[in-house]
Amino acid sequence: MTKVVVGMSGGVDSSVAAYLLKQQGYDVIGIFMQNWEDDNDDGYCTIKEDSMDAIAVADLLGIEIEIVNFAKEYKERVFSYFLNEYQAGRTPNPDILCNSEIKFKAFLEHALNLGAEFVATGHYVDKQLSSCGEVLMKAVDKNKDQSYFLYRLNQYQISHSLFPLGRLCKPEVRRIASELNLPNANKKDSTGICFIGERPFRDFLQRYMPIKSGKMVTPDGKIVGEHQGLMYYTIGQRKGLGIGGQGDPWFVADKNLSSNELVVVQGHQHPMLLKQTLRAAQLSFGQGILPDAGHYTAKTRYRMQDASCQLSYVNDDCIELNFTESQWAVTPGQSVVIYDGEMCLGGGIII
């Protein structure tokens, strides 16, 4: 019997994934990953509740489960990068790095050491065999498709992973959970990584990075306010700027690290918020080869519609994408993910 280790988060998706794999005849073991432990008792992190939910589901399904601590690996591989990027004025996406470095690396290594052939998660993504190996595919449920967050997975990681929910829609997953009377059948989906969760973002960052306030300025240098630290703002941000007055709403358009100034503009369609071309580095393509230059679609953020673009190479470590239509609030530090139809090819970090 093929052994599969399922990452059980305590949520409904991974719980149903474990059930489906058991129904398919796999020898299923559950693992609850503890990736953060600095402030587990502060009321914002739900790790205790989540672990109890995962244990309760495993008991109902009749599978073994253990809690494994990856907090050290998380701090070294993900959190340090998170802080460095904010200090450099960029806006990172730690969920993407957590997937490639923890859930499909540290966790995968642990599972293989247990004698498993595969790991599995509750991600909404699919995979299929191509001429160049196994590739990630968009999920059937386009509203939940999470291929954007998994684009950094390499061929080895993809080939040792199973995604039971790739061809299911979320309502069907909820229905299965309800019919099984899973204790978390109606549990709200998580909305962030545990170490931030629902806590005040500024309060959290202040523990690790000093506040350095400065001027909010317009593109022509007019001072319109004061920012609380460039790290707290992202391109396209509207809320929390504290700029009054008449006219169109204000948005963050740029950060000037050398002068510690936050550049703000008025109007959602201001030219500084629209980019037709971007460059990306730190490239990662799941098939291990660079795709040919040419026409593809891409996302510059999760939950946006695929945008038509032309891919070209600056060099082997940097791509340039020229979009048919200008993209709004392209943000350095975020990821751009490239698709060929339903196939997720990979992507890179916007520079």
In CATH, the topology of the largest domain is named Rossmann fold
Strand order of the largest sheet: 12-15-14-13-16-17
Largest sheet composition: 6 strands, antiparallel, barrel
Write out the CATH superfamily name of the largest domain. HUPs
Poorly predicted parts? none
**How many DSSP helices?**
7
How many beta-strand segments? 17
- What spatial form do the alpha-carbon principal axes imply? globular
How far apart, in Å, are the first and last alpha carbons?
47 Å
According to CATH, what is the class of the largest domain?
Alpha Beta
Helical amount among residues, as a percent range?
A: 10-25%
User: What is the chain-wise order of helices and strands?
Assistant: EHEHEHHEEEHEHHEEEEEEEEEE
By CATH, the architecture of the largest domain is named 3-Layer(aba) Sandwich
Share of β-strand residues: 25-35%
- Mean pLDDT value: 94
Q: What number of domains?
A: 3
Derived from helix and strand composition plus strand pairing, the structural class reads alpha/beta
Question: Over all CA atoms, what is the radius of gyration?
Answer: 21 Å
